[in-house]
Amino acid sequence: MSRALSGQPANEQPPAPPVLPEGPWVTLTSASNTAFAGPWGVSFTANLTPDKETGLGKWSERNFIDTIRTGRHLGRGREILPPMPIGVYRQMTDNDLASIFAYLQTLPPISNKVPEPLPPASAAAH
Ligand code: HEM
Question: Where is this region: Disordered (predicted)?
């Protein structure tokens, strides 16, 4: 619980990307529930705590709303990968998103630099 919402722990070796099974399987989830392998490669849950260097500490409410609405980091950067349910969350009202952001900013800041996602080739090469 002390790590709550701080994302894939930087000091833990992420699990080796699994070989994805044939057939209509989409996602494999690590036991920590912070790493997800699928056709997009491997994504790691973000640090949503208000740490200034590794979390959302320097984000404004606008940055947060833009990220969720566009599905891109800060509204203009890299596309946010699955399984983050952007297609669902982007339909929330500004008021809902502002409330979620306000809550996240009340969390204790946790310094944790989440690793970059791994491209699909890495998942397949394992
Ligand atoms: C209200 C609930 C949620 C909020 C407020 C939230 C917020 C965010 C934000 C703001 C980012 C982007 C961070 C950035 O661009 O730096 C993100 C990324 C991510 N989220 Fe969520 N999220 C929520 C629920 C979920 C759920 C339910 C899942 C998984 C089932 C999930 C998985 C992920 C993953 C894997 C990433 C990293 C994607 C990437 O690196 O491209 N999130 N989340």
Answer: 1-25
